[in-house]
Amino acid sequence: MRMDSVEESIVRAEPPGVRFLRRSKGFNLSIRAYRTSVLIITFIAYACFHASRKPISIVKGVLKAEWAPFSGETATARLGEIDLAFLLVYSLAMYFAGHLGDRVNLRIFLTIGMIGSGTFVALFGMGYWWNIHSFIFYLSVQMVQGLFQATGWPSVVAVVSNWFGKRKRGLIMGVWNSHTSVGNICGSLIAAAVLQYGWGWSFLLPGILVAMAGIMVFLFLVVSPEDAGFASIDDIDNRRMRIEDQNLIGGQKNVLSNQVSSPSEFHSSPENLTVLIELSKVDSCGNDVNRVIDPSKAEPHGGDQNAKLDREELLADDEEDSLLQLTRIASTESSATTAVGFLEAWMIPGVASYALCLFFSKLVAYTFLYWLPFYIRHTAIAGEYLSDKNAGNLSTLFDVGGVLGGILAGHISDRLEARAITSVVFLYSAIPILILYRMYGDISMYVNIPLMMVAGLFVNGPYSLITTAVSADLGTHSSLNGNSRALATVTAIIDGTGSVGAALGPLLTGYISARGWNGVFIMLIIAILFAGFFLIHLVVAEIVDKFHKSESFEVDRLRQEDIAEM
Description:
Blueprint: H1 3-13, H2 16-24, H3 31-53, H4 55-66, H5 75-101, H6 106-129, H7 135-149, H8 152-163, H9 169-176, H10 178-194, H11 201-220, H12 233-250, H13 255-258, H14 263-267, H15 270-275, E1 277-278, E2 291-292, H16 328-334, H17 342-346, H18 351-377, H19 388-416, H20 419-440, H21 445-475, H22 487-512, H23 517-533, H24 536-565
Helix pairs in contact: 3-6, 3-8, 3-10, 3-11, 4-5, 4-10, 4-18, 4-19, 5-7, 5-22, 6-7, 6-8, 6-11, 8-22, 9-19, 9-21, 10-11, 10-19, 18-19, 18-21, 18-22, 18-23, 19-20, 19-21, 20-21, 20-23, 20-24, 21-22, 22-23
């Protein structure tokens, strides 16, 4: 394949906004700049998705009090059915969205979903000015909105996973996944702030916001490194891991110095050559500026400023920031892998277990998402009932705890290299907190607020971890033999199954809460118990794996000592 044809394919894959900046302004973005832009754009995109879901929970009190068909004796049940309509369509459409997302341009796919979603969120609010009191109208609008929103999660997770390797994926995605809570907070604050002017505004403004974010995605989101002419992160990760395994088996510290006798021998190895080709860009004139790093020219720190290519740095964690590149031809050819089938994705080890865990975990999280403001509004705290606006504002503290929970769960799972153990510990820690919140949350604000935040930490922590880092890990599982085109499908399977639970939780809450809130909290605790149960065998596997690794390290240490004594 000719180099100019490869460059043309790269240019065609670039978003129009990035292409305009590169051509007219002469910008030549680094890998770090691309990564930063991907994190920011996808963060804003999904925060807007969640912000547009929040208004219905804020306006429930107003709808129940004064707006048919949601007023009267059947009000609570009708509001639960509205939640079900959205979440059921959302969860079912998620399976198809993920399967389709691995086969189409994710930037276009996500743009269509965001603009469509914004349109129907705003349309729900227009029912206020059009004086519509038909339950079928609101039900239909929520169902179509769920269809468009299903494009969001598989798309953003797949895009972020394309740009970041596995080593710090838990922490990075834990921080990044705070967009869910940030979106909930912003959606609550916006909806509560304009509620006094009419509940229609609580939907119209978030709808406009998510549609505008969709335009931003279309203009600037770069889906993968290959689209910008860089190497696949998974290729780099896989080759680095194989080299490190060789080092561990041989008891060697530096593969470059101990395994390569000459530059020509090193360059003759395709895998090593792949790792040592520095990631670069084609300049504004289209000239190829790829540069191969010769290990024989690498000098220790303190040498010539232009030759600080310390050999160990080439294999360090932060080497991805200076990014190592395959040749453009190899990058283009590697992108031609076929997408994984739906049933094949279900067979990936761990996918079914995490999907079933998320079914119950998301049931709990979304019950809080849709009903917490309503619960606070109808529960006296220190003997006083809060207004709809104040109840909505107070409920955002649950999401503040959720932000901390997602970051903490991601960081801990990275350090321990144990996603299942981390998830189960967080899940079962949530049970006593929920009991305390129900029993003592009405004593005062000073008791309610910390309990609510800690509940958000433990409830949203595993939910965040499973929907981000775990989904990304499984979407690039070793059983796929390097084929990363399962990311959106696996993400959709896990989150789609979870969303079925998310639909069930708010629906059951609508009926159970009519008989008292104790029943709702019992339902949540039972759901958490089941969520942890589906991960128990994975927890055991992680513990056994760690035990075997510790034994292996001890054997290697003793062998090294014996060699040193000889």
